[in-house]
Amino acid sequence: MANEENEVYLTKIQNLLPSHLLVQVPKLIPHFQKLEALVPLPKELPELLKKGIYFALLQSVVRLLNRETDPLLPEIVPEYKELIRTIIETYETLNPEIESNWLDECIQFGDKSAYHWEWKHFDSKELF
Fold it and tell me: Which of 18, 49, 94, 125 to pair with 12, CA 20 to 30 A apart?
């Protein structure tokens, strides 16, 4: 049931997505079904916060896939929990308005996070 809800939610928010994420939605749905099973989202979130989390997760998965890194690697999965926790804390601190750049900032945070995870788990080991 949760997997169907995610697919429906991704479909529901896709008209809000920037074009670079929108074109990825069909490819992302299977990843999100697996991700939801591994990293359940808290229930009863404010709608803007939920969108922000999804936007950040979408962008991080897209970035990892573009860099040919499996977004469901055991090293990466715990990072999503931290990403979600950070977004929730930031949302509670900022209490952003719908008209704000909150969703754009969440996308950028997801993108930067994916780069950081890849460096932390893979590239940094190659340097040392």
Answer: 94
